[in-house]
Amino acid sequence: MTDTTTEMDGNVAELRNTVRDPKGQGDPKSYRISKDGETTRHEDAAWADKDLKMYTRDVHVHYGDNHAIKGVSVDVRPNEVLALMGPSGCGKSTFLRCLNRMNDPVPNARIDGTIALEGENIYDKDYDVVMVRLRIGMVAQAPNPFPKSIYENIAFGPRLHGLTDGKEELDEVVENSLRRAGLWEEVKDQLHQPGTNLSGGQQQRLCIARAIANEPEVILMDEPCSSLDPVSTNTIEELIMELKKSFTVVIVTHDMQQAERVSDRVAYFHLGDLVEVGPTNAVIRDAQDQRTKEYVSGHIG
Ligand SMILES: Nc1ncnc2c1ncn2[C@@H]1O[C@H](COP(=O)(O)OP(=O)(O)OP(=O)(O)O)[C@@H](O)[C@H]1O
Ligand SMILES: [Mg+2]
After folding, report:
1. What are phi and psi of 196, to 5 degrees?
2. Which residue in 5, 25, 36, 204 has the most C-beta neighbors within 10 A?
3. From CA 230, how far away is CA 247, in angstroms rounded?
4. What is this structure's pTM?
5. Does the keyword Cytoplasm apply (predicted)?
6. Strand 218-222 relative to strand 136-139: parallel, antiparallel, unpaired?
């Protein structure tokens, strides 16, 4: 197979064209990724490991000349909470957004490397980006409910994606999602009021309920508690602990205590590099790398 794509020109759409499905060329889970015109083949057995929720290898992100992520490789295990930590500007949000292709529309963003969900390359040209976002949901840093009713905020996704059959089923999904997000009791009598009328903490739970309603497998959260008071933060943290029974969660947090409370593992980033990854206690209490040590002891950040 010849690869017609040479240098990527900074347009993320190009990325999809650089990923080749080697149909008829042996292992269907082994893809060819073009990088700077060279074609390489994945030989890593973990690539096709369905027991891994997500697999990322040698991920690079450039925003124009800014090399924001420099060859990050980290696995995400099923039903874990993986916390991404590190000083401001180190690339946590950038990496998180790569996990469900939210960087695709960013002008000048270029993504290289491999990101797979249960052995499937989510950047494959044949992989529908809508499906990526259905399977990998996202909760943003600031609560961002749609300018619609509470009910419609939740119902929108399942209706759009045809996940429910009829109003009764949709009602059920709305109720269940709100229950799981710990919001039902507070809003059950005002389902048709605007979601934007809720408090910040309630809006964030509404956004989590909205993400859950699509039945994703992975939920990405970018500092979901940064604008919340301690009570709302506590509610969300309890919710994350509950969610990991059914979902896999990748969360960005600056808060060491929060990471210790909710996460199983920490991936520590510094200036676009993944410095170390390991069990939360080990990384926070017994970091191996000097940069991590300085961050956790409050010297960087
Ligand atoms: N949309 C964008 N366009 C251009 N550059 C960007 C964009 N988003 C991020 N960057 C750059 O990429 C680098 C990493 O930014 P990113 O937002 O991922 O960091 P972060 O670790 O999430 O920081 P913070 O803790 O402040 O949220 C920074 O140098 C930033 O300026
Ligand atoms: Mg960020």
Report:
1. -70, -10
2. 204
3. 24
4. 0.84
5. no
6. parallel
Q: What is the mean pLDDT of the chain?
A: 84
Q: How far is CA 147 from the centre of its chain?
A: 24
Instruction: Please tell me the distance between residue 95's alpha carbon and the centre of ligand 1 in angstroms.
Output: 9
For 99-229, where are the alpha helices, taking DSSP H only?
A: 129-135, 150-160, 167-180, 184-187, 200-213
Q: Across the strands, what pairs with 76? A: 54
Vertex 171: Cα angle to 170 and 172 (nearest 5): 90
Token couple for 139 = 């909760």
Instruction: Name every residue whose Cβ is closer than 8 Å to that of residue 202 and which is 6 or more positions away in sequence.
Output: 183, 186, 187, 232
Check whether domain 12-296 has CATH 3.40.50.300, yes or no: yes
Question: Integer distance in angstroms from the first to the last C-alpha of the chain?
Answer: 47
Q: What are phi and psi of 232, to 5 degrees?
A: -65, -40
88 lines ligand 1 (CB under 6 A): yes
pLDDT at 31 exceeding the cut of 80: no
pLDDT-derived band at 11 (thresholds 50, 70, 90) equals very low
300 lines ligand 1 (CB under 6 A): no
Domain boundaries, the chain: 12-296
Question: CA-to-CA distance for 228 and 58, rounded, in angstroms?
Answer: 34
Measured over the CA atoms of residue 213, residue 218, residue 223 and residue 226, the dihedral's sign is positive
80 HSE (CA, 13 A, CB side): 19
Does ligand 1 come within 6 angstroms of the Cβ of 270? no
Q: Is 94 in the pocket of ligand 1 (CB under 6 A)?
A: yes
